[in-house]
């Protein structure tokens, strides 16, 4: 998401609340209307007129003061109305973007020192007892003030814990904490699983063996069972199967009449013996390898079906993964979704599957860099556009890698490279030739300079076995583009 100062001009704050409060105050302070009879009060008319003018001026002053106060109020997505009056201009801009914007939580987890929330556009928010921190450039530029991501995540969480918004405006402090509400880290204690389930956030749990973030028991069972499906990945496997260890079941209670798969799922979640047997039959390493192979195959099939449709107008089986998707915007969204899923699973499955993850990501990057062209060029069915877009809007390379947005937006996505950054240099070493070939191709195609710098660092890491400077922290500074980012002809 763009830096708040660039989006601030698009935001507006209504003043209806101010008018309502001013009217309410006037209604409370005003007495009953005087009788409409001035025959006995002619001598007092001037005094009453003066008093009336003073009362009116006072009322207008109060209304003006009310409107001035409410001008800094904003209604957030949670339904809570926040008062930003105590924030300076930069803090207010960040708060406005966060409280009126929308972000996606990729995963969340509890740590020894607080809670972490990974957002889809790469920033990670940490909520601790001493401070709230984000890895985004906006926060890093001024870490004494909450960024838009912190304001947003705190509002989402308070919206969960406070389903009935306060009737009065809630004053915000510049660290993002609402002054009159409980500290969010106190409310989260022991409640993160329930919060993640309600808000549909992926919850990561620490493995008992200390190997890092992992999956819940139900997620592991889903992963194992999905491994036996030829193309279905864990996230898409039987979404109707929802089970938690919080509610115990006997083996008899696990039976789902007429549904063997659902019965096994329940048994594995609630019976340690069944779960242990499944894990032995399909170990975590095998599940990881199968998952990343499927992810790679899904992206390959998606692009192949799209290419065929662009060339001939032929549609594939819509029941297959990626089948029936022929809108270029949707193809781009599906590719980003696939890369994002791979990134999440690198963390959740660590230390397993890193080689398969690297292979899948690099194959997607190779496929996109090979498509620096108008996909409708030379088609045999006379199609000139999908929905009136121009050739660059149909160009997958231009939309995912070659867009000039990278030169201007410090929060812009580095397609695939953000996910490759998570892997160790040793995981990339066997793909160093592939990475160098990709780098050479996008240099010829005049990719944005920030993207070239990031990929150059990854190539160097793969060749030397050393992590690139600043890996996983701050991106290379965005400079002027190395040339026109329009596709080469």
Through-space gap between termini: 31 Å
The total count of helices amounts to 21
Strand count: 9
Structural class: alpha+beta
| Helix-residue proportion | 40-55%
**In what range is the share of β-strand residues?**
5-15%
Please give the radius of gyration in angstroms: 29 Å
User: Rough shape?
Assistant: globular
Order of helices and strands: HHHEEHEEEEHHEHHEEHHHHHHHHHHHHH
Instruction: Please state the average pLDDT score.
Output: 79
Q: Strand order across the biggest sheet? A: 3-4-5-6
Largest sheet: 4 strands, antiparallel
> Which ranges are low-confidence, i.e. pLDDT below 50, for 5 or more consecutive residues?
1-54, 56-70, 207-213, 472-489
Number of domains: 3
Architecture overview:
This protein is α+β, with helices and mostly antiparallel strands and 489 residues long. It contains 21 helices and 9 strands. It is globular, with a radius of gyration of 29 Å. Helices cover 49% and strands 7% of the residues. Strands 3-4-5-6 form a 4-stranded antiparallel β-sheet. A 3-stranded mixed β-sheet has the order 1-2-7, with helices on one face. Strands 8-9 form a two-stranded antiparallel ribbon. The protein has helices spanning 4-7, 16-29, 45-70, 89-100, 137-141, 148-161, 184-188, 192-199, 217-226, 260-270, 272-281, 284-312, 328-349, 354-369, 391-394, 396-402, 405-408, 417-420, 425-428, 432-444, 449-464; strands spanning 73-75, 81-83, 105-111, 114-119, 124-127, 132-134, 170-171, 205-206, 213-214. It has 3 domains: 75-199, no CATH class; 216-281, no CATH class; 284-464.
């Amino acid at each position: 998401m763009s830096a708040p100062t660039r989006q601030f001009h698009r935001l507006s704050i209504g003043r209806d609340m101010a008018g309502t409060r001013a009217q309410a105050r006037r209604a409370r302070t005003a007495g009953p209307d005087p009788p409409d009879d001035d025959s006995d009060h002619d001598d007092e008319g001037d005094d009453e007129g003066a008093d009336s003018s003073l009362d009116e001026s006072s009322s207008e002053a109060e209304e003006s003061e009310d409107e001035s106060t409410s001008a800094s109020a904003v209604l957030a997505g949670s339904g809570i109305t926040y008062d930003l009056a105590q924030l300076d201009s930069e803090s207010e801009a960040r708060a406005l973007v966060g409280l009126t914007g929308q972000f996606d939580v990729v995963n969340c987890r509890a740590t020894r020192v607080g809670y972490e929330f990974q957002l889809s556009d790469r920033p990670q928010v940490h909520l601790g007892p001493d401070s709230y921190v984000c890895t985004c450039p906006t926060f890093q530029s001024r870490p004494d003030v909450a960024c838009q991501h912190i304001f947003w995540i705190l509002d989402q969480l308070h919206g969960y814990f406070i389903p009935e918004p306060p009737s009065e405006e809630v004053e915000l402090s510049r660290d993002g904490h609402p002054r009159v509400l409980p500290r969010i880290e106190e409310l989260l204690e022991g409640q993160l699983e329930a919060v993640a389930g309600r808000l549909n956030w992926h919850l990561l749990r620490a493995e008992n063996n200390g190997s890092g973030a992992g999956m819940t028991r139900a997620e592991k069972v889903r992963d194992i069972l999905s491994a036996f499906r030829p193309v279905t990945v864990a996230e898409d496997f039987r979404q109707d199967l929802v089970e938690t260890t919080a509610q115990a079941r006997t083996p008899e209670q696990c039976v789902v009449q007429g549904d063997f798969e659902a019965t096994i799922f329940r048994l594995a979640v609630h019976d340690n013996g069944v779960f242990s047997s499944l894990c032995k039959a399909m170990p975590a390493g095998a599940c990881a390898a199968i998952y990343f192979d499927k992810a790679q195959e899904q992206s390959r099939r998606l692009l192949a079906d799209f290419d065929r449709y662009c060339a001939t107008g032929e549609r594939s089986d819509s029941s297959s993964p990626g089948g029936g998707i022929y809108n270029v915007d949707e193809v781009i969204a599906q590719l980003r979704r696939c890369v994002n899923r791979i990134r999440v699973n690198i963390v959740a499955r660590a230390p397993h599957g890193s080689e398969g993850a690297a292979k899948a990501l690099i194959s997607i990057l190779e496929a996109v860099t090979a498509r620096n062209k108008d996909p409708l060029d030379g088609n045999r069915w006379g199609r000139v556009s999908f929905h009136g877009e121009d050739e660059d809007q149909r160009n997958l390379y231009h939309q995912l890698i070659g867009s000039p947005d990278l030169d201007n937006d410090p929060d812009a996505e580095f397609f695939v490279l953000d996910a490759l950054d998570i892997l160790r240099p040793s995981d990339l070493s066997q793909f160093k030739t592939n990475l160098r070939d990709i780098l050479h191709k996008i240099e010829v195609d005049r990719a944005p300079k920030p993207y070239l710098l990031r990929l150059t660092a990854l190539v160097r890491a793969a060749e030397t076995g050393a992590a690139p400077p600043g890996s996983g922290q701050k991106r290379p500074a965005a400079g002027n583009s190395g040339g026109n980012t329009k596709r080469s002809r």
